[in-house]
Amino acid sequence: MESPTPLWLTDVKYMEGKKAIAAEFSRLNFRRMVRLSFFPSFFSEKKVLNIFNLQKILSQSNERFTILDSGNSFKISSATFSGLINLADILFNETGFRPLVLNPERQFLIEKNWTYFDCFTSFSGKEILKPGFASVPVAKFGLFSEALPETIRLAAEESSELAEKILESIALSKILKMPLQDISHLEFAQAEAFLENAFWKTGFGRFFQLKQSDKTKTTGFRTKGLSEIDFSMLWPTLLTSPFYNLSPDSINCNCCKPKNALEKNILPSTLAVVEMKQDGFFFESCSSSFSRNFHKTMSGKESRLRRMQEFYLKDIPLGPFFRLQQVSLPLADALKLASAKKARILKHELLQWFCLKKEGSVSKAVLHMNRTLSLLDSISDKASSSALKEYGVLSQLKLSTNPDFLLCNALLKTGTRLLCAIPEHLCSSESAFFNERLCFAIESVKSSVLENFADFAGKRESRVVATGKNKAFVKSTRPLSLIRQFSKKQHIPALLRAKSR
User: Fold this and answer.
1) Residue 320 and residue 314: Cα distance in Å, rounded?
2) Burial of 144 (0-12, 13-18, 19+ CB in 10 A)
3) Which of 238, 271, 214 lies closest to 442 in space, CA to CA?
4) Percentage, residues of the chain above pLDDT 90
């Protein structure tokens, strides 16, 4: 009978010649190698190519491959990774779509639902079992002379900052399924890797074309005496089902097309035709994506740029508009202008919607991360309660050098930060996953929520002084109560956070 001594997954290597993955499981100086057969893959969307054309294109190569039906996509597997790259290049040359090809190690970990530093307790026959908790691996790494738990304990005693840096790297390695040496310190690269894993896991099979980003100015103002309401934790949740289900593979689906603008899956990025009631005015749109397109295609460029510079606006404004002029605007903008008596809505021109039947790739990834963070939060709370009962006033001192507790909190902090970056990252034109329609929808949803919050606050003896991408600065005597009431009325999670300035 094999020993139940736990081992940690410390390395994963693809062996092309063996058509296999070599997984290394470690404990201190002990190493156990397990070889598992593996054939790397990528996906091709059915709406891009049918099975006949896909086979015809890929057959130009001498590589051996298989095609499996994977729902909305076809999964193309090759005997070797170099062969897979060759197939991806042929597909790109023929269609203009670049398949999402992850390195074999990441593909393997996603398929197995494993991460680096997972703890495994049984190796009976072909079965490899792991417990469902995060623990610091009792193994030696790199230049450290001691095992990792002892290294972290000593680092925490000397400098909490050093311990946090080590644990953050481990947390990112686990979340992104990447080895420590491949982890980038750039938040952009981390968010990109998160989305790569999410889209590959659900079989969403192509990149979007890259575009140049626009840089805009931000406005400064005094915030003393105001409460800062942080919406950053709410935005990723609104990307999910059953809220807005915003993802490249769930926007404007064929199965849930609405008949009119009153149906529940309509997005505030729907375009509405409005008739202006004032002369010579400008305003900032809810969507910087819409603003950029408006600026490129409409006359009055010089006046808009002059307006932007004079008033230190963060985005190029829309305008100038004149009385009785008719123009198509995002529904969120149209409603705001109608409420201010500056325009009236004539009709809805171009409906935008989200799918009610199929959950998008982004929604699945965000909900999975939210469940993980909730579990980690529960583990952290239980550890704190147990330490308080055992050590009393010394409990925090004891926990401050406990490696597993520190790792749990590092995963919480890193996962939360990464999750909050996803909505804005999807709107970055430098991302391989940038999609103008999706960006337009995300920005419109965010603007709509902020506008609703400002209106709600104004009716409850409070006032929103200014808003940003993720924040609202409000003058209120009871900001926490305001948040709870707003969340309940809007039927959204109470994930907003407030702090005094």
Assistant:
1) 17
2) middle
3) 238
4) 66
How far does CA 448 lie from the centroid of its chain?
A: 20
Supply the pLDDT for residue 500: 66
Question: Residue 98: which pLDDT band, with cuts at 50, 70 and 90?
Answer: confident
Report pLDDT digits (tens) over 376-432: 999 999 999 999 999 998 999 999 999 999 999 999 999 999 999 999 999 998 998
pLDDT for the residue numbered 4: 64
SS3 236: helix
How many CB atoms lie under 10 A from the CB of residue 387? Answer: 18
Q: Coil, helix or strand for 493?
A: coil
| Phi-psi group of 177: left, alpha or beta (phi > 0 → left; psi -120 to 50 → alpha; rest → beta) | left
d(CA 232, CA 424): 10
Name the one residue in this structure whose structure tokens are 């325009």: 343
Six token digits for residue 121: 């307790």
Mean pLDDT along residues 264-275 = 94
- Please state at what angle helix 288-297 crosses helix 436-458, rounded to 10 degrees: 120
323, 278 Cβ separation under 8 angstroms: yes
Sheet holding 497-500, edge to edge: 463-467, 471-475, 227-230, 497-500
Strand order in 30-37's β-sheet? 30-37, 20-27, 7-15, 119-120
How far apart, in whole angstroms, are the C-alpha atoms of residue 76 and residue 164? 41
* The CATH number, out of the four listed (3.40.50, 3.30.342, 3.30.60, 1.20.120), of the domain defined by the range 1-132: 3.30.342
CA-closest candidate to residue 147, choices 400, 399, 403, 397: 403
Please give the Cα distance from 349 to 235 (Å, whole number). Answer: 27
Tokens 């008033």 belong to 311
Please give the residue that has the higher pLDDT: either 132 or 7. 7
Q: Where are the domains of the chain?
A: 1-132, 271-350
Asked if 345 and 273 touch (Cβ cutoff 8 Å), the reply is yes
Regarding pTM above 0.90, the answer is no
Q: Which two tokens stand for residue 395?
A: 């409990």
- Quote the CA–CA distance of 107 and 38 in Å, as a whole number: 9
